[in-house]
Amino acid sequence: MSVWLAAQAGESESLWNQDWGSVPDWVAGFGTVAAVRYALVQGVNQRKREVEQQRRRVAGVSVDQTLTKYHLQNSEGKPASDPFAYKALVRNQTGAAISNVYVFDRLGKKIVDVAPIPPGGEEPVAVLWDEDMSDPVIVRVHFNDIDGGGWDVDAEGKLYNCPVVH
User: From what superkingdom does this record's organism come (predicted)?
Assistant: First the structure.
């Protein structure tokens, strides 16, 4: 047992007798870590600023959902007995065209693809609507901006940065 204690004591002494480097080595190490951390923080902050600038540029895209429901007409021009349609208007009030415009329902299913919308343009969207639906059908509109960024706008007008859809 005394041999074991002596071995343990020898190991702890050798731990303290290690060469841990000089003070300048430690200062250089801390400086390197601080420089890398600073660069990472600057990169993250720059990306946040870029996203906010993009968000301001595309803030004019909206979807207006009117609660006007109307019967669809059949090929003879007579009102179809079922179903109703729900009318919405996708507006682009930004200074640039938007493309890859998709309208999604509340279940996340793509309802319709909309042609690219020029600046100041709007595109009407008719969505089939069952009589038992009490809440708005369209939940979000996805689009790509002129810079290639992907965005979603919900029924309340909130913008979300999201992956680009082609």
Answer: Bacteria
